[in-house]
Amino acid sequence: MKLILVTAAVISEGDLFLMGQRSDGEEAGKWEFPGGKVEPGEDPRACLRRELREELGIDAEVGRVLEVVSALQNSRHLVLLYFKCAILEGKPEPLQCRQIRWVPRKDVGLLDKPPADRIFWENFLKLS
Questions:
Q1: If 0-12 CB within 10 Å is exposed, 13-18 middle and 19+ buried, where does residue 88 land?
Q2: Across-strand partners of 11?
């Protein structure tokens, strides 16, 4: 079983959370916290900054880890690191996703999300 390390950004402004809709792959159409796979030898925070530039065209401050989620998906073991992030420069645009949306906190749980993001959101609500 292959282990894949993935980073995800939790970006909020007030009561709104930034979510992106996947455009391709097995989770196409689902809403997720933006981020991506850590490349071999890459620091997870550097990965997330890179992914946010590529996917959304923003420069972000990557803060503390909010949660770590382990999920089995097909023949892969995904370990996702969810970081608290803040936009430093730029306005988010859907460069590598179908669309982006600022979603009210009360509605994030209603979105169709990949399993790991569902687990994260349930845990996040319990802790906040």
A1: exposed
A2: 85
Contact 34, 97 (CB under 8 A): yes
Contact 10, 99 (CB under 8 A): no
* pLDDT at residue 86 greater than cutoff 80: yes
Residue 34, φ and ψ in degrees, nearest 5 = -65, 150
Amino acid at 46: A
Among positive and negative, which fits the CA dihedral 56, 57, 63, 64? positive
Q: Are 29 and 116 in contact (CB under 8 A)?
A: no
Which pTM was predicted? Answer: 0.95
Read off the amino acid at residue 76. R
Is the pLDDT score of 73 beyond 90?
no
